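Sanity check

After download, print the first record. It should look like this:
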Amino acid sequence: MEKKNYRILGEFIKDISAETKDIESYIYTKENISKYKLFIDINTRPIKNKMAEVSISTKFKENNSNSNHGYFEMVYAVIVKIDENVNTKEILEPIFLKDVPSEVYPKIERIFLDLLSHSGYPNVKFETKVDFNELYKSRKN
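Expected C-alpha cells:
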C-alpha cells in the first residue's frame, strides 16, 4: 500500500440543513424521494503551514429543484496537513479531490442518512456508491 502524503488533523460539520416547508411538502417528498439525487461538490482552501480545508458539499434534492419540496444539504469540512515534500499541483489535486473525500465519505454518508431519517424520511438508501476515483478521472478528461 502506498504511503499517504497527508494527515487528517480534524473534521467537522460546517453546515447542515433539512428543509421541509409544510405538510404538503412533506407528503410530496415522502412519495417522491426515490427520484431525488445526490449531488457532491468539493472545494479546497489553503491554510498556512502546509494545511488546507477540504469542504465536501452534499445535496440531496430533485433535479428540477422545486423549492416547495424537501431539500437536504450538508457541508463537511476536513483539515488536512500536507507532507513537506509535496509541492506540485499534480500531487495535491488527487489528495484533495480523491484521497481525502474517499477516506471521510463513509462518515459523511452515515451522517446524511441519519439526517434524512430524523427529518421524517427513514429507510432512504443511496442507490449508487460515490466513487471519487472515477469522479476525479472524469474531471481530468
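If your output differs, re-run the checksum step. Summary of this record's structure: The CA atoms of residues 15 and 75 lie 5 Å apart.
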